[in-house]
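S1.2 Input.
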Amino acid sequence: MSVRIDETDRKILGVLQQDASQSLDEIAAKIGSSKTPVWNRIRKLREAGIIGQQTVVLDAEALGFEACFFVLIRTSEHEADWQAAFLKALRARPEVQEAHRLAGDIDYILKVRVKNARAYDAFYQALISEVRVHNVTALLSMEEIKSTTMLPLSSV
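S1.3 Output.
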């Protein structure tokens, strides 16, 4: 379903990106509308797949997940069976917050959140026991400077 996004939709999406737990009344007040039109637009955006799953953002460090690694993976395997096993292994690991297949010298990059370096090593050992990789480079993030899930809606 293709949906045309107008300025009011962008305002609603912007408000929801900041805090999706707000009531319809609060959202409507912020965008200068009333509750029913806002609800209808949100429903339309959900049905179109523009608004997906709604969750909460947890503070990883407050929960003891102090280490964030970016894992660069090179592989010499590109067959469908290997890729299926690799994707299955990644999806089964809750430590993997993001996984991307890349163009260029690196085949995959993972964002892995763990409690410490020892926990990362356990993750690494388990991963390489399931799938063969040519080269793995782990980069420890020293400081998170910016992290957001918000999209730049002004360019939509």
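S1.4 Remarks. The mean pLDDT is 95.
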